[in-house]
Amino acid sequence: MLSDYEPDFFFEEDKMGMTITTGSIVLEKDGSNLIGISIGGGAPYCPCLYIVQIFDNTAAAKDGTLQSGDEIIGVDNVSVKGKTKSEVAKMIQAAQSSVTIRYNKLHAEPAQGKTLDLILKKVKHRFVENMSSSTADALGLSRAILCNDSLLKRLEDLKRCEGMYRGLVEHTRRLLRSYYDLSQTYKDFGNIFSTIGVRELQPRASEVFTKFGEIHRQMERYGVQMIKQLKPVLADLGTFLHKAIPDTRMTIGRYADAKFEYLSYCLKVKEMDDEEQSYHTLQEPSYRIETGNYEYRLVLRCRQDARARFAALRSDVQVKIELLDNKHVQDVVQQLQRLLSHLTTFYDQCHQLLDGQRFFPIEVDLAKGAFTYESVGGQFQSQDDDEPEEYNVAEEAKEMAENSGEVQSLISMD
After folding, report:
1. Partners of 39 in beta bridges
2. Class of 150-354 per CATH?
3. Where is the composition biased (Acidic residues) (predicted)?
4. CATH superfamily, region 19-107
5. Domain boundaries defined on the chain
6. Residue by residue, what is the 3-state secondary structure of 342-404?
7. Which of 218-232, 249-263, 323-337, 353-367 comes out lowest in average pLDDT?
């Protein structure tokens, strides 16, 4: 058995190019007689005894000196070389109110732990994120589903909110365009009626046409004024659509990336734990473990860093989504109220212009030839006589038969 060999049997530590520095720290225990760390390694399989995890809201986490992957070399000035992790845990628990930990800090580059295997695990997490559990189990990918994150589901709500705002902005833009066209129609009406009023000889009719045209011109001014007042509403809705929502979606994307990276490191740690357990079960030596387990400690450090980024981005996403929801509720109500207020003001102004005005009927002096129209064969003038003109049908038919050329021309024109 491996435990029967002498300590000198272990290989020289393979630090994989990483450096270590020695230090010590005093940690106060909490009410549960704990300092907030879990340890791994140690005799009889590994020459190093190291920190596996730092728990949140504990003395070790609040101090921030110790990190995952750091080696513990002494407890209260007692060396832990050659001791098991259970013995070291009892030494820490035996201390009174505080404990002194001597350590070798591992200086690791996070990029060194981001291997191709980690990248493929990250891709697998993205692939199975929206799968059902039964589908993932059938494909053998169930281990990649480590947590059910509700924040990513908010991305779908964000997409629906974006679609609603996009439709609202487009509808408001079309509404303003329609009111602009309506204002130009008012302007054209005003110009036409004012021109008629200037040319009208009858004083009363001239006054009515001129006033009616001026009212339409004033309605055009009110319409343009309303459109200028509603443009900020469109700009505010566009800001929410094109800046606030994309920024939140980008933050959720970064959060999802950090989450998948953290879960990939968790999965890698689990696989390395299973590998180590299989070697222990078969009682076979492992080069990685016998040389200080630095690869495993590197992954532990990367997992801790990834978890810190994941927690920070999660907090950021929660704050942004909460602010976005509050702004969404308040902004929609406020902008719709502004829209209705300006439209109401516009209609009230137009109503006041026309209220109480009596323009019609209008008496107009017409010239004697006002209703004289040109025909194809000449001019048909209106008769001043009260009795209608009598026609001789036979003579007219004979004349039309003689002038067949004129008949053909009339038919072709008809």
Report:
1. 51
2. mainly alpha
3. 383-393
4. PDZ domain (2.30.42.10)
5. 19-107, 150-354, 373-413
6. HHHHHHHHHHHHHCCCCCCCCCCCCCCCCCCEECCCCEECCCCCCCCCCCCHHHHHHHHHHCH
7. 353-367
